[in-house]
Amino acid sequence: MQRVTNCVLQSDNQILMLKKPRRNWYAAPGGKMEPGENIKQAVKREFKEETDLTLVDPELKGVFTFVIQEDGETVKEWMMFTFACKKYEGKLTDYCREGELEWVPFQDVLTKDMAEGDKTIFDHCMNRDEVLYGTFTYTSDYQLLSLQLD
Amino acid sequence: MQRVTNCVLQSDNQILMLKKPRRNWYAAPGGKMEPGENIKQAVKREFKEETDLTLVDPELKGVFTFVIQEDGETVKEWMMFTFACKKYEGKLTDYCREGELEWVPFQDVLTKDMAEGDKTIFDHCMNRDEVLYGTFTYTSDYQLLSLQLD
């Protein structure tokens, strides 16, 4: 089962977002866990690889189950661990192999094109303190079928 | 990949522990996530199944990667999500299929026989507020080989 970690980094009333080339959808930088890693190691490593920035004290804000369904059958399931962070070290990279990195003002974050469920996640990370739990069910072309939050 | 949830339930300076028959080791009640569940649904369902108690507002206290190694090779990897909770509803079951349930006074919890890494987890859940991240590497007969905490 795939496990993904990502982080919503806030600084100066902006969020660091990654515009991915496939659909021009925005997301939080991050990526797949490697075998034996814990989730905090994974998010720090992935964030550094994509941005050159070192996260300082990222905090877990969401644990999500993602289900991909086709014709009512589950074809894939994975987990995503979303952190939020307000402090970092380093200088943002000029080049990210995954897409374009962009500091986006708070008020513009939810207006960007993104997977529908990701708006819930960004909104939570920017505005709430507790950990959010949920299951997002998507079609294989990323139309949100259902959303269950706890 | 197997995903397990469990919960350290505190009440009246006691912890509800489960003594499992295989090694007579103590553990926190819990069990495997089912497809499509989020981790909070899973821990509430599993805890209820094993104890008849309904957890009220369980909070995530640990996210752990478990690695089983034989002769230096990883043969299995799974995730464990550990909650802590101070409130419940219902009456403890007379019979649990997984072992014997026992309310254990705080000061006795860490003296019980258990997997070595579980002492760290109980200690954290009883005494700390933040989320702990870590990787526990065991042999297939549950000797702790290494422990990495974040």
Q: Would you kindly provide a written description of the structure presented here, covering whatever features stand out?
A:
The structure is a homodimer of 150-residue chains. Chain A is built from three helices and eleven strands; from the N terminus they run E-E-E-E-H-E-E-E-E-E-H-H-E-E. With 150 residues, chain A is of the alpha+beta class. The first copy, chain A, has one domain: Nucleoside Triphosphate Pyrophosphohydrolase (Alpha-Beta Complex). The longest helix of chain A is centred in the first third of the chain and has 13 residues, at 39-51. The mean pLDDT of chain A is 96. Chains A and B meet through helix 1, strand 6, strand 7 and strand 10 of A and helix 1, strand 6, strand 7 and strand 10 of B.
Task: Give the arrangement of secondary structure elements.
The structure is a homodimer of 150-residue chains.
Chain A: E1 3-11, E2 14-19, E3 26-27, E4 30-32, H1 39-51, E5 54-55, E6 59-70, E7 73-85, E8 88-89, E9 100-105, H2 106-109, H3 116-127, E10 132-138, E11 144-149
Parallel strand pairs in A: 1-7, 6-10
Antiparallel strand pairs in A: 1-2, 1-4, 2-3, 2-9, 5-8, 6-7, 10-11
Family (chains A, B): Belongs to the Nudix hydrolase family.
Protein name (chains A, B): NUDIX domain-containing protein
InterPro entries (chains A, B): NUDIX_hydrolase-like_dom_sf (IPR015797), NUDIX_hydrolase_CS (IPR020084), NUDIX_hydrolase_dom (IPR000086)
